[in-house]
Every structure is written in C-alpha cells, then in structure tokens.
Amino acid sequence: MPAQMERAFELEQFEAVKPSKDRSSPVITAGVGQRTEAFDQLGGGDLDCLDHPVLDDPAILRGVPASRSQAETAWTDVQLHSQAVSPAGIRSFAMAADWLLIDGSSVMFRAFFGIPVTAFKAPDGQPVNAVRGFLDMLARLVTDRKPRAILVATDEDWRPKFRVDVIPSYKTARLERGAMPPELQPQEPIIREVLAAIGVEVVGSDGFEAEDVIASLLPKIRGKVEIVTGDRDLFALV
C-alpha cells in the first residue's frame, strides 16, 4: 500500500485509506481484483456493528431491533470524487445516521455509467471503473456521514415476477439491451469481495430487488437511518 495513504474512515472498528493530497476525496485502493496486504490492513471483514442480520424474507428480518425512532428528513447532495460518479440524481435521506443503507445495485450502475470503461483497469486489463466509483462513493459517505452501521442491499432479481404480473412493461427496455453490460458483469463479484473484506454486510433476497430489502429493513431498525440510492421508487419511504 502506498506510504502516502492516510486515514479516511472514522468508524470505531474500521479504517480505510485515501490517496495522496492531489485527490479531492478519499478512495479505497485495495488492489481491486486480487487479494493484497491492503485487505488485511483494512481488517479482513471484522466489522461487528451490524450484528450480521439475516434476511429470510423481505418482510422478516432477524437480528435487528424492532423499533425505529422518528427523524426529520431532508434532501442533500452526495459529494463524490470529481472523477467518480456524477452526483446528479444521487440523493440521500440526510440525518445524523446511525445506519447507512445503500442501494448497491443502483450505485453500481451509476458508478459504471459515470466513469469511462477505459478509465480504470486491473493489471490483467479487466475494467474496474464501477468498482472504483462504488468505493469512491462509499469512502465519501462514511467520511461525511460517520454512520455506526452500514448495509448494502442488492438486486437478486432485477425484474421480479410479482411486479411484472402487475405491470407487464416493467423494465422491458432493459430486457432489450440486456440485464447488465458485459463490462460490468465481472465487476459485481469484485465489489462484493471488497465489501466483505472491509466488513460491510451485503444483503439480498431471492426474487426481490434492493429497494424491497431496504423497505423491509426500515421498520426493524432502531435509530436514525440514511438511504443512498438513485432509485425514485424509494421516495415512497419518505
């Protein structure tokens, strides 16, 4: 790991790194695509503040307290690295967050389309622009928001049958162009691997989207929650 990297994250159990001062925001550069000593220095996934919740069903969450306090909600921009994902359209429900719930699938797609595929590549030539953008955003969020717990929700089914039954045209445009760009597909498991290495819990449920997971989590969580997404469907939770 370069000697000039400094502390960026201020969670009690968690330290990440940022590049030299010629960059405007922190970013994890943990040898994307391969396990390096950076992963060990990041703690190897030892982050206990989430109590490892298990989502058996989008309506049933175990291991998370069952009450949630009220909090005033306001919109604020998520400030991102100038070379990372454009902040346009990415909003967060701003509070002094105890929990940070991230729509991982939404953020991953925005990272991919916000950074040129050729901008960042692994040593083997594989594009890692989405990995870089995702981790740039995560670093900035943790630095700015200082949450006590972080959870990333994922789409395990981006076009659930129960939604298609109600709205047959749901995401048909994406069907035509393909579920995921070929350059993005191999980056998703890398993002999951890095999140596991730094101790960030990733939760999904078969047959459901990330928004369903987040909506199911909210009534079960105690404390103030901040949601990060580019998906307007989650406006229903305000």
Short description:
The protein is an alpha/beta fold and 238 residues long. The chain has helices at residues 37-41, 104-114, 129-145, 161-166, 172-177, 187-197, 210-217; strands spanning 6-7, 17-18, 54-57, 60-62, 74-77, 91-94, 99-103, 149-153, 201-203, 225-229. 27% of the residues lie in helices and 16% in strands.
Rg, alpha carbons: 17 Å
Main sheet: strands, sense, barrel: 6 strands, mixed
The average pLDDT is 65
Run of helices and strands: EEHEEEEEHHEHHHEHE
CATH fold category name: Rossmann fold
**E-strand count:** 10
- The parts where pLDDT drops under 50 for at least 5 residues are 1-96
> What's the CATH C level?
Alpha Beta
| Spatial order of strands in the largest sheet | 5-6-10-7-8-9
What would your notes on this structure say?
This protein is α/β, with parallel strands linked by helices and 238 residues long. The protein has a single domain, classed as 5'-nuclease (Rossmann fold, 3-Layer(aba) Sandwich). Helix 3 packs parallel to helix 6. The N terminus is likely disordered.
Topology:
Elements: E1 6-7, E2 17-18, H1 37-41, E3 54-57, E4 60-62, E5 74-77, E6 91-94, E7 99-103, H2 104-114, H3 129-145, E8 149-153, H4 161-166, H5 172-177, H6 187-197, E9 201-203, H7 210-217, E10 225-229
Parallel strand pairs: 7-8, 7-10, 8-9
Antiparallel strand pairs: 1-2, 3-4, 5-6, 6-10
